[in-house]
Design a protein that fits this description.
The chain is of the alpha/beta class and 297 residues long. It is built from ten helices and ten strands. It has helices at 52-56, 84-98, 111-122, 147-158, 170-180, 186-196, 223-229, 254-263, 279-282, 284-295, and strands spanning 14-20, 23-31, 37-41, 63-67, 105-109, 130-133, 197-199, 205-207, 237-242, 268-272. Strands 1-2-4-3-5-6-9-10 form an eight-stranded mixed β-sheet, sandwiched between helices. A two-stranded antiparallel sheet has the order 7-8. Helix 2 (84-98) crosses helix 3 and helix 5 (170-180) packs across helix 6.
Length: 297
């Protein structure tokens, strides 16, 4: 398969390394450094570069900043320390480092949205407006919590595992991505394959994320837990949900939309038709328009 060109209207202007709680975080920046800051927080097993398609759809000038979470992308791995409070504390430090004098607008996908809402519930003054992409909320009324499963997964995460087999070529990675998302184009899949993998010394292509991140991440479970945390989260809030979420993502059916409205009656909720969990890949232009319309009010 030949290399496919990827049109990037807004290529990153730089990448930098930021120290965060003993780890080196990789951070990408796009756009005008003097413009309003826009922080992008990716989901589990992704990286900051996976927002590229949405960034291409932005019409206004932004100072876009997208870190790779611990254990993801080009940031350091953390030897199994991937609980929700680890990511939340990392975000708190990143905000001090990257935005010491301002509260940025934030767009967060999946796990990134969960971490963002937890952090901003504790630090409501650190965010101006928040957009959550198919994330941020309960998975249903999961009580009682399966404590044995949580602890079993933690023991597995804390023990070094075998190296994944990987892929023999970049086109194999592309095919894997296309198989997981029927809406994605070849061009998009090729770009994601390039930014989400590395070629190791044995010639195999492997995902950049820490393999232990295949296990479920310990976080809040029940609607009651989320409601208690969000009691102090007051920033203007837009939820963008998918029409076809995957099983481990927060559902966006009518029942759970109503549940979200009970948390934040003032929040805006939009469900995009013909989208899977990665709404910013399936309809990036529409997501960009919704984001800018909301952030510019």
């Amino acid at each position: 398969m030949p290399t496919l060109p990827v049109s990037r209207l807004h290529p990153p202007r730089e990448g930098l390394t930021v120290p965060v709680r003993g780890l080196r975080y990789h951070v990408r920046r796009w756009g005008d450094p003097a413009a309003r800051p826009l922080l992008l927080l990716h989901g589990v097993r992704d990286c900051g570069a996976t927002f590229q398609f949405m960034i291409d759809g932005l019409c206004s000038s932004w100072n876009v900043v997208a870190p790779d979470w611990r254990g993801h992308g080009l940031s350091d791995r953390a030897f199994g320390s991937y609980w929700a409070h680890d990511f939340m504390a990392d975000l708190d430090v990143l905000l001090d480092t990257l935005f010491p004098d301002t509260a940025p607008d934030v767009v967060a996908h999946s796990m990134g949205g969960n971490v963002a809402t937890l952090c901003f519930s504790m630090r409501p003054e650190r965010v101006r407006r928040l957009v959550a992409l198919d994330s941020a909320g309960p998975m249903g009324r999961r009580l009682p919590v399966d404590a044995r499963r949580v602890l079993t997964d933690w023991l597995a995460m804390a023990r070094p595992g075998k190296v994944p087999g990987g892929y023999g070529s970049l086109p194999e990675v592309v095919e894997r991505i296309l198989a997981s998302n029927r809406r994605m184009s070849q061009v998009q899949a090729h770009f994601l394959a390039e930014v989400s993998t590395r070629r190791d010394e044995d010639g195999r292509y492997r995902w950049l994320y820490d393999p232990v991140l295949r296990f479920p991440l310990p976080t809040l479970h029940s609607a009651e837990e989320w409601r208690a945390v969000w009691s102090s989260f007051t920033a203007p809030f837009l939820w963008i949900g998918s029409s076809d979420p995957r099983p481990e993502a927060p559902p966006f059916d009518d029942e759970h939309v109503a549940l979200r409205r009970s948390f934040r009656p003032d929040a805006e909720i939009v469900r995009l038709d013909d989208t899977g969990h990665n709404v910013h890949h399936d309809r990036p232009g529409d997501v960009a328009r919704l984001v800018e319309a909301f952030l510019q009010r």
